[in-house]
Each structure stands twice: as C-alpha cells, then as structure tokens.
Amino acid sequence: MRIALAQTDCALGDVTGNLERAHRIVRRAAAEGADLVVFPELSLHGYALGRVPEDTSLAADDARLAALAAHGPDVLVGLHEDGRLRRYNAASYLSDGSVLHTHRKLYLPNYLEWEERKHFSPGHALRAFDTAHARVATLICNDAWQPMLPWLAAQDGAEVLLVPTNSADGLAPGAVDTAVYWEDLLLNIARLQQCWVVFVNRVGQEGKASFWGGSRVLDPWGGIAAEAPRWEESLTLVDLDVRAARRRRREMPLLEEARFGLVQREVRRLMQEGVD
C-alpha cells in the first residue's frame, strides 16, 4: 500500500481554491503510484473559522468531495462538515468517486488558542472500516491524545490509523512543545496498538498559530518509515506492508485479551459515581 502524505497549507475560507489545489496534489500522487492520499485536518477550510464571515461548510455527500477520488487514489480529506443542524470537524475517506466513511472529531480542544467548541459539535462514534487496501480508522488530531480511542480502533481491527492534524507552535508563553509531545504520542500508539500510524500535519500560518508540519509514518514496532520536513509543503510517499501489523500482533499479542466486561463494569461504576 503506497500512501502519499500531503503536507499542505490552505487558504482560510477558500473552499473552491483549496479544492483545486487538492485536485492537483491528488493527480501528482496518482502519477507517483499512490493508493491513498492523506491531507491534514480541515484542509479544505482552514482552522480559524471564527474569522470567516459566512458558513462555508460542506455536506459529506457533496459531489465536490467525491470528485477528489476520481483520479485513481483513495483520498482522506479534512473538512468543516455541514450536518444540517450541527457542524463538525470531520475527515472523509473517499474511494472510487464516492465517500466511503466520514469520521467526526470526538474530542474538541478548548484551551490556549484552540476554541473548537465555538464552531463544531463533537462526533459520537468511532468505527474502523474496510478499504481496498487495509482496515483503517481515523483519529483527528486531539482524538489521538485520548488513550482509549487508538485502543478502541485497534480492537475494531484497524491495521492503519490515519491521524490528520492541525498542530501548531507559539500559541502561548510556556505552552508545551507540541512536536515533542507528538513524537512520544505517536511512538506510544504504534507500539501499544501494533499498527501503522499515518500522521499528517499542516504547515502555514493563521493568526498566532504556526503549523509546523513534520508529518510521518510509524510502523507497528514504532520505527519511523517516512518523515516529511518541518515548516514547508511537501508530498511524501511511503510503502506500507499492511500485513506487518498482523505479524507484530502475533509476535506479541498485547491486544488479544481485551477484557471488555472488566472495562464495561469499571466505566459504569465511574459514571455512577458522577465522573461523566
């Protein structure tokens, strides 16, 4: 499976222009033999949506989205999804000219400069899904920071985790070094869930946010299979042996004994005690 990491910038609120650029990138990736092109979080809209004077959200079944997958490769693209009454920070997996799956971001950050609850509603489900190349799940940025979500995706059979992201530096004095945090986090996910992890971060500037790129792919042992440069646009291609996830899970069967009954009991107890 050949994946193209489309580490891109985008123009805030310019959906038409961002779609045109995405088409060009997908065509280029197709010429390089890519099976899947992965774009960053909100790649069709930009992040600071509070500065956009009108609603530019797209329905997940918008024909303009599906058209991105008409060039050959599958495409994962980030969008501000029009869910009728509600709007979502979403990523749609497109294949063969249609939408195969849409993931709605589950955990919306509200700290420092991030105020996603103003513009999005949280999603309510996480599902792994089958593609022509692998069983896949999507975690959008802050979703990957929640320990139970990569575990749930792996328990649902995901061999490849796609992590489109808008991660930035310089948001507040004393803020965490997000690049270092992501390095540790991705290593942890790949090793504990024993799967491929495809992290695609944005580049460019919006307000105080400087998006640093550094997209990468980790194998099921935690090794870095490919890495994009910092701070600049790039298209990085990497070949994945999807079967490596199954080999690793046989070598060290960390995931087999899930103890769902135990997890259910303890979660129920915590809910009864008022945690949620």
Automatic annotation (TrEMBL):
Keywords: Hydrolase. GO terms for molecular function: hydrolase activity. The keyword Hydrolase applies. InterPro entries: Aliph_Amidase/BUP, C-N_Hydrolase, C-N_Hydrolase_sf. It comes from the Bacteria. Coiled coil: none annotated. PROSITE patterns: CN_HYDROLASE (PS50263). Residues 1-242 form the CN hydrolase domain. The keyword Transcription does not apply. This is Nitrilase-related carbon-nitrogen hydrolase. The lineage of its organism: Bacteria, Bacillati, Actinomycetota, Actinomycetes, Kitasatosporales.
